[in-house]
Design brief:
The complex is a heterotrimer. Chain A is built from 3 helices and 1 strand. By secondary structure, chain A is mainly alpha-helical. In chain A, helix 2 runs antiparallel to helix 3. Classes of the chains: A mainly alpha, B mainly alpha, C alpha+beta. Chains in contact: A-B, A-C, B-C. At the B-C interface, helix 1, strand 1 and strand 2 of B face strand 1, helix 2, strand 5, helix 3 and strand 9 of C.
């Protein structure tokens, strides 16, 4: 296909092709479970789900804090919990050699999990 | 310089086409899972499970898998 | 021998014309392309052995170019690369089972084409710009900043809170751009779909379905939008077969 499909493009933003390429190169985000990597494969799956929930909780917590309905004491405890959770997650990622990009699953027709 | 622009436009056109043909469009139930070369195609390991269910159904209904050409 | 399927067409399509267009064009494994049709529908397919399907960009583009060629002449529903069915019989049964959905979808995209608009920006830079805006510092934000921090936990919450607010502002900004695009589009009677924040710099990934004669008006609208948003880069592509407007799941 030699046809040029660009109808409009102004200016020059570097890395456009790179960004569009990201939409199809989901090699890293695919979940591969084989007998050899069952351990890290399972860790990846579990940590992906944990990370998803952790991010949702953190987001929700920030909404509550922003809403101003929490007491100082509550915010303090919330911060302590979420901060420790974040640290723990970093440890786990390091332990299983996973990056943020690994902790996502391509759900095919549904797109990315995160 | 001009050549660069042409190449880049072609690049973008091809990547756009790839995104569509690999990620969009009608998905038929007979889909194959292929993961070779530089492209990784769709779906988790659900296919195996689905095809064994399919085989079971065929066995149950006694339908032959023969092709009608 | 399995059948690789390229596209679903309405039976109203001039089948002789399709066949003459397909003449000489080869499918993936070099096999001929042909039509499998019922009274209501038709599909373009070619014979292929499962083992012969090599999924690389070259083959995917070859496959896409057949769909592309057909779409220039007929209304069709493009099929995703890698779709293979066991036999002609299986294809006919699939068509039968999904008759209503396929016909409805074909009707929706009849004589229309897909156009893609991607909007890029350096989202880190945009965040910095948003931060610099006076309204970014709401009263609440000020009080949070001025508070004497009691602990590292409180510091952590304040840091996260700032990130959260920036993200919300970025989303609000993206939504305002989408609203603006929609405003420009309502004259074009286009069906549109918007995705936000696909990647760090691709803040909007939109697709439109519209008549070919409105193509120039669309280009004009995008040029206008680009003029108003110098910090964003608009890339419009098309016409494409209606890949993003297939709204049904094959049973």
């Amino acid at each position: 296909m030699s046809e040029n499909k660009i109808l409009f493009e102004a200016g020059s933003f570097d890395g456009i092709s790179e960004e569009i390429g990201k939409l199809t190169s989901n090699e890293e985000s695919r979940l591969k479970l084989t007998p050899d990597n069952a351990d890290s494969g399972l860790a990846k799956l579990v940590l992906t789900l944990v990370e998803l929930i952790r991010k949702l909780v953190e987001k929700q917590a920030m909404r509550r804090v922003d809403g101003g309905s929490l007491t100082d004491d509550e915010i303090e405890r919330l911060g302590a919990t979420l901060m420790k959770l974040e640290e723990k997650m970093e440890e786990m990622k390091k332990h299983f050699n996973l990056t943020d990009r690994d902790l996502n699953i391509n759900l095919g027709p549904l797109g990315d999990l995160m | 310089m001009h050549d660069n622009i042409v190449d880049r436009s072609k690049d973008i056109s091809i990547l756009e086409a790839l995104d569509r043909v690999l990620n969009k469009g009608v998905i038929l139930t007979g889909d194959v899972v292929i993961s070779i070369a530089d492209i990784d195609l769709i779906y988790l390991g659900v296919k195996l499970m689905l095809s064994s269910v399919e085989t079971m159904e065929q066995l149950k209904s006694g339908r032959s898998i023969k092709e009608i050409q | 021998m399995e059948k690789m399927i390229y596209a679903l067409l309405s039976a109203n399509t001039d089948q002789k014309e399709v066949i003459s267009l397909l003449a000489g064009r080869k499918g993936l494994s070099g096999a001929d392309l042909y039509l499998v049709s019922t009274a209501e529908m038709a599909v373009v397919a070619c014979d292929i052995k499962r083992a012969d399907i090599i999924a690389n960009s070259y083959n995917a583009i070859e496959y896409a170019s057949v769909i592309e060629m057909l779409a220039q002449h007929f209304t069709l529903l493009p099929v995703r690369f890698g779709s293979v069915m066991e036999s002609a019989d299986a294809i006919l049964q699939m068509l039968e089972r999904n008759l209503d959905d396929i016909q409805q979808n074909l009707l929706k995209v009849e004589k229309k084409y897909e156009f893609g608009l991607k909007i890029f920006c350096d989202s880190e830079k945009l965040k910095a710009d948003l931060k610099a805006k006076p309204e970014a510092m709401s009263k609440k934000a000020e009080t949070a900043d001025q508070e004497i921090t009691q602990s590292i936990y409180r510091d952590w919450v304040n840091k996260k809170l700032k990130e959260h607010r920036l993200e919300e502002m970025l989303l609000t900004y993206v939504d305002s751009v989408i609203a603006e695009i929609k405003g420009h589009l309502c004259m074009l009677q286009a069906v549109s779909k918007f995705n936000k924040m696909k990647t760090a710099t691709m803040i909007i990934d939109a697709v439109f379905l519209l008549d070919m004669e409105r193509k120039d008006a669309l280009i004009g609208a995008v040029a206008d939008l680009q003029n108003q948003h110098s910090s964003l880069t608009f890339v419009l592509t098309g016409p494409w077969p209606p890949y993003n407007f297939v709204d049904f799941t094959v049973k």
